[in-house]
Design brief:
Shape of chain A: globular
Low-confidence stretches of chain A: 266-273
Radius of gyration of chain B: 24 Å
Mean pLDDT of chain A: 85
Mean pLDDT of chain B: 85
Distance between the termini of chain A: 21 Å
Largest interface: A-B, 109 and 97 residues
Strand order of the largest sheet of chain A: 1-2
Largest sheet of chain B: none
Oligomer: heterotrimer
Strand content of chain B: under 5%
Shape of chain B: globular
Number of strands of chain A: 2
Number of helices of chain A: 12
Chains: A mainly alpha, B mainly alpha, C alpha/beta
Distance between the termini of chain B: 40 Å
Largest sheet of chain A: 2 strands, antiparallel
Helix content of chain A: over 70%
Structural class of chain B: mainly alpha
Low-confidence stretches of chain B: 1-19
């Protein structure tokens, strides 16, 4: 173990200073969420009369309780299937030098390049034809498909760097291929799995266009769709929006806080296990 | 089963048999991912790109084929020239700044400092806020009497106050800074995952050898971090080239089109100007752009991975 | 991972896949419930109190009818409703804007015949020719709107009193007000020139008096090819805009100021007023401290108050999806929305200026300064609603930003608008 020296101390102070700069906009976000709409005190000043009313109104008017549940289902579903499908697909793609696997990998990478605008209308119409409009399943399918290029790219990058000895050491039986993969290879890439979980979760938790487009007309709303209900043509209720955003980011920040410890410990654990 | 065994026996003399053994038996692992991906991305994108060869206005029932006219039109559109320039500037600036600083922060919070867990959360926090809210928040901070100028005034740097979003030359850099602020935590997380893969003993061995921190980083950490570097550079480059939300919310491409990116131009042509065909042509061009840029940088980074 | 958790994980995965498939199949798309109840679908603004009240009343008047309302935020409402109409998945009743210029305006949607013809509706005769022209295309009526949007100057009464001023009624008084304001460390008019701001409404107010009011033939002449922006009094209006900017009438660095900042300046009294569309009054009131009051006046651009015209346009309203399975019922709702009873519900539930007659209606205090003129013939519609395509509007709003920033001349801006007009 490296020791905590005076150099580490300087590093600590410096990093904390950077973090404080990062926090300024977030402080303002939090600050505005406690201000009454008519409070015209300056951006940095504390609210004249701090109020929880924005939170209560956002929760009640936006129906954020139900929206949180929908967001959790959608995000959870997308993350679960993304991790399973992407890890599985990335493994042969990263290990095999065959022409088909190189080509397939490139086909997946191409998905990173394509602007979402191109697919928007045709995909919407396909989902319509399948009768999946207005269902959480539609949003999950679209989300998992769209997450594949990014997750496979990350998994393949890290799996390539993984020394091959670990899998060679394991006795491999084709009949239980997936189980073998799941218990030998998958734990080895735990740090990147943690990273993919958190990044996919953030992207889909915050996604606004997909759930708006596909859930419109149903009673189901995700948290972002509910929050943007406070944006009108001639002005937005920003205090409510900011309160709603804080409600919506807390679960994911807390998840990240715990998950990052898991990511950090992950690799060592993987080596020993 | 017999056939499979025969195939394996046939393969036996090949050099890399043992290495490829397990992986080659599980090619079908690719199928679920491929099916969903083709369904949700490839097929609709191909269908969408067909609009680029039509004069569709977004509403009329029967668009007609116009061949390559929409692509030719890009060459004569002054807005497209500005948008392409801005898109490249944003992509390169964001890639360099976000990765350089993201790596420094990752190294710092991967060290023995006591506050590292909290700092990781703080730097990551902006990633979690939706881009539309980030855009609004910064639009407010950047306004002439807003937070940034107030802060500069307060610390005695009042002379540096600017019209951050209203000055056509400055606005693009103001946007770049927001993207950096929002996504540096993203780069940090991926670098951190990469740093976890470097065993403590390797770093300690280097330290005992007497290598200084810079030397140790360059010759020990950097090569081991190569996959994370490649992934980060690739993702920030692509993210920068496709940037939309933040620009759309903060300036909508203004003032006077000075901050248009290819993505904002696609949006305005498709949804406010009734030029869906032209917008699709722009989207196709954007994909080609991103492909070329990614291949170039991937080749460059592949060199350093060796 | 133990064997049991692995099994559990696999089981969950399988169950989830099955669940996805089932959820997909169980969608009920029929619009009639089991006991003959009819469900109308409607896509409107998120958080719209007027729509809520209208629906409640309509459901009460029509037993067995339920309206399923989807509220959408700005600006996604534009792309959302457009995509749904094009894909045949839109609600029975949808928000539609008058004129053209965005993806869900009457004239844009007319190209694909997505909206039902409402020409025979009883309320059509309440509207004058100019209004009817923007409510549809080629002589048909495709939408109706219950409110007029006015472009007055909105003033913070207490801020005016504090500097001892009253709303100006002549151009000279405007310039005087600017000086009084700057002498008192304030600005006369809040201005936001970041996209989505109010910067493009100022020339609407100026051209009303200088061009569109006195010369009602200007637009027909433009369509006939006998007139252009470049050769019109748009030049005079833009010169006046420059004069106002140079005189310090507006928020400093307006090019970097967003709409909500400008609204806040009026709410707080840092700016005495703001030239903007009337629905923003309630946004400004919400931002203002308790006890603040606001008033309105037409914005002058000559020295004779009798010259002043007021820009009055139709706001967004509703149209009926041509593919609706309940066409008659949807039309019935729009008829109710524009009936006197419907208009009364609207004025009781929101601070709007009704577009049709409501017996005994008194306009809100804030609109008292312009309400007489709204009813008179000293009004013009918004110029952009008369333009032939959305590209003119784009050339205008984009070019005007650089005009305000000082890097584009009036001549260049107007040439670009002419070029866009000719397509």
């Amino acid at each position: 173990m490296r020791k905590y020296t005076w150099r580490t101390g300087i590093l600590e102070v410096g990093t904390i200073l950077v973090a404080v700069l990062f926090l300024i906009p977030i402080y303002i976000l939090v600050n505005l969420s406690f201000k009454a709409p008519g409070d015209q005190s300056s951006t940095f000043a504390f609210p004249e009369q701090p109020t929880f009313q924005n939170y209560i109104d956002a929760w009640g008017q936006g129906g954020l309780g139900n929206a949180l549940i929908n967001s959790a289902i959608v995000t959870g579903g997308i993350v679960l299937f993304t991790v399973i499908f992407a890890a599985a697909a990335a493994y042969p793609l990263s290990r095999l030098g065959a022409r088909w696997s190189k080509f397939t990998y490139l086909v997946f990478l191409a998905g990173l390049l394509l602007p979402a605008q191109l697919a928007l209308l045709p995909l919407y119409q396909t989902i319509r034809d399948l009768g999946l409009l207005g269902t959480l399943a539609g949003v999950i399918i679209v989300g998992v498909g769209a997450s594949m290029p990014f997750s496979i790219f990350l998994y393949a990058g890290f799996m390539r760097a993984l020394p091959a000895e670990y899998e060679e050491a394991a006795a491999l039986d084709g009949a239980h291929a997936f189980r073998t993969f799941w218990s030998v290879v998958f734990p080895l890439v735990r740090p990147i799995t943690g990273t993919i979980i958190i990044l996919t979760a953030v992207a889909n938790w915050n996604d606004f266009l997909t759930p708006l487009l596909y859930l419109s007309g149903s009673d189901q709303k995700t948290i972002t769709v509910a929050i943007y209900g406070f944006v009108g043509q001639y002005g937005a209720q920003w205090n409510l929006i900011f309160a709603g955003i804080i409600i919506s980011i807390l679960p994911i920040l807390i998840a990240y806080f715990f998950l990052q410890k898991y990511i950090v410990q992950g690799f060592a654990g993987g080596l020993k296990g | 089963m017999a056939i499979a065994t025969a195939v394996r026996l046939n393969e036996a003399p090949k050099k890399r048999r043992r290495y490829r053994g397990f992986a080659s038996s599980v090619w079908w692992f690719v199928l679920p991912a491929l099916a969903l991906y083709v369904f949700a991305v490839v097929y609709p994108s191909i269908r969408g790109s067909l609009f680029a060869f039509t004069d569709w206005d977004g509403v009329s029932p029967n668009p007609s084929w116009v061949g390559l006219d929409q692509f030719a039109r890009i060459l004569t559109d002054p807005n497209a020239v500005v948008a392409v320039r801005n898109t490249l500037l944003i992509a390169f600036a964001v890639t360099i700044i976000q990765n350089a600083i993201g790596l420094l922060i990752a190294l710092a919070v991967n060290s023995q400092i006591k506050s590292r867990n909290v700092l990781r959360v703080i730097i990551f926090a902006p990633v979690v806020i939706t881009s539309i809210a980030v855009g609004f928040l910064w639009q407010n901070l950047y306004s002439p009497g807003g937070g940034i100028n107030q802060l500069l005034e307060a610390i005695g740097l009042g002379a540096l106050q600017q019209n951050w979003l209203g000055d056509p030359d400055l606005a693009i850099w103001s946007i770049i800074f927001v993207v950096f602020w929002q996504f540096v935590g993203y780069s940090m997380v991926i670098f951190l995952a990469g740093l976890q893969g470097i065993p403590e003993e390797v770093l300690e061995a280097a330290a005992i050898d007497g290598a200084g921190p810079v030397r140790r980083f360059w010759s020990v950490v950097r090569p081991l971090l190569a996959p994370a570097i490649t992934i980060n550079v690739m993702l920030s480059l692509i993210g920068g080239l496709k940037l939309f939300d933040q620009v759309f919310v903060m300036t909508a491409g203004g003032p006077g089109g000075a901050t248009n990116t290819i993505s904002t131009l696609i949006y305005s042509n498709a949804f406010s100007l009734g030029r869906f065909g032209y917008a699709s042509a722009l989207a196709v061009v954007l994909s080609i752009f991103v492909a070329v840029a990614s291949i170039i940088q991937y080749r460059l980074l592949a060199l350093q991975e060796r | 991972m133990s064997r049991i958790t692995k099994r559990a994980t696999a089981a969950i995965a399988v169950a989830a896949v099955a669940g996805l498939a089932l959820a997909g199949c169980s969608t009920d798309t029929s619009s009639e419930g089991a006991d003959g109840e009819v469900v109308l679908t409607m896509s409107g603004w998120a958080d719209d109190g007027i729509a809520e009240a209208l629906i409640a009343q309509f459901e009460e008047d029509n037993p067995g009818v339920t309206i399923d309302y989807t509220g959408l935020p700005w600006p996604n409402i534009l792309t959302q409703i457009n995509t749904e109409l094009v894909s045949g998945t839109a609600s029975d009743i949808v928000v539609v804007f008058p004129g053209n210029g965005n993806p869900i305006t009457a004239q844009t949607l007319a190209k694909g015949n997505y909206l039902a013809d409402l020409s025979d509706s009883p309320w059509v005769s309440n509207y004058n020719e100019a209004n009817q022209a923007v409510m549809g295309a080629d002589g048909t009526i495709l939408m109706g709107a219950n409110a007029f949007t006015i472009i007055p100057a909105i003033y913070n009464t207490q801020a005016l009193e504090a500097v001892g001023a009253t709303p100006p009624t002549t151009w000279s008084e405007v310039l005087d007000l600017c000086k009084t304001a700057t002498d008192n460390g304030k600005v006369a008019y809040a201005l936001a020139a970041v996209a989505g701001g109010n910067y493009h409404t100022v020339p609407y107010a100026l051209t009303a008096t200088l061009l569109y009011g006195p010369d009602p033939d200007f637009v027909p002449d433009q369509y006939a090819g006998d007139a252009t922006f470049s050769d019109s009094d748009w030049n005079a209006a833009l010169d006046q805009y420059t004069e106002l900017i140079d005189a310090g009438c507006f928020t400093a660095d307006a090019t970097g100021t967003a709409l909500d900042i400008a609204q806040g300046q009026v709410a707080k009294g840092d700016a005495l007023g703001m030239i903007t569309v009337s629905p923003q009054i309630s946004t400004i009131q919400d931002m203002a401290p308790d006890g603040a009051t606001f008033e309105t006046a037409a914005f002058p651009s000559t020295d004779d108050p009798a010259d002043t015209f007021l820009p009055v346009g139709l706001g967004a309203g509703y149209g009926v999806n041509a593919k609706s399975e309940n066409l008659d019922l949807a039309k019935k709702f729009v008829d109710f929305y524009l009936s006197e009873a419907g208009l009364r519900i609207a004025v009781d539930n929101g601070s709007i200026y009704p577009s049709g007659p409501v017996d005994g209606y008194t306009p809100p205090e804030t609109l008292a300064g312009v309400s007489d003129q709204v009813q008179s013939d000293k009004t013009v519609s918004f110029p952009d609603q008369t333009w032939p395509n959305a590209v003119v509007n784009d050339a205008y709003t984009t070019g005007l930003q650089t005009f305000i920033g000082g890097s584009t001349t009036a001549a260049t801006l107007l040439q670009q608008m002419d070029a866009a007009w000719n397509g």
